[in-house]
Amino acid sequence: MKNKLFLCVIAAATIFVLIACNTQKKVTKADFESIQMGLSQKKVEDKLGKAVIIIKDEAKISKLIKVDLNKINEISAKDPKRLSTFVGEDDLSNLQIQMTNLINGKKVEVFQYELADGGTENLYLINGIVILKSFN
What is the number of structural domains in the chain? Predict the structure, then answer.
C-alpha cells in the first residue's frame, strides 16, 4: 500500500513539473509590436519569453526574409509610423544600416514566436541584437 501511494505521489509530482516547465508565455500582438530594433536577445526574452523555434539555416532564413521584406515595403507605404516605431527613430537610417548587414552576409538567426491568437511572428537577430521583425 505504501509503495502504491509513493508511486502515485511521484507520478503526480512528475506531471506537475512537466506541466510547469512546459508553459510558454502567451505572446500577444501588442507584446510583439513593442519589440524595437536594437533590443538584445535577453531583453526580448524578458518581454516575450523563449522563442518557440530558432532558425539558423540560411536557405530557410532567405525565404522568410523575402516574405517579411515585402511586408515591410507594404507597411512603409501604408503606415510609416508603425515602421518608425520599430526602428526607434523618425528617419530610417538605422534600418538601412541593418539591411546592409543582412546583404553583407552577417550571421542571422530567426526567432519565431507563436502569438496567443495563433499567428506566428519572426524576429531577426545578428549577434544577439534585433535587426528586423515581421509585420503581419
Answer: 1
Phi and psi dihedrals of 89, rounded to 5? Answer: -155, 165
- Let me know if residue 47 belongs to a domain: yes
Whether the CB-CB separation of 81 and 44 falls below 8 Å is answered with no
Residues of the chain with pLDDT below 70 are 1-25, 88-92, 94-95, 102-103, 105
Domain membership of residue 7 (yes or no) is no
Q: Kindly report, residue by residue over 63-97, the tens digit of the pLDDT.
A: 998 999 898 888 888 888 887 778 765 556 766 77
Residue 35 lies in domain:
26-133
Residue 17 lies in a domain: no
Within 10 Å of residue 36's Cβ, how many Cβ atoms?
16
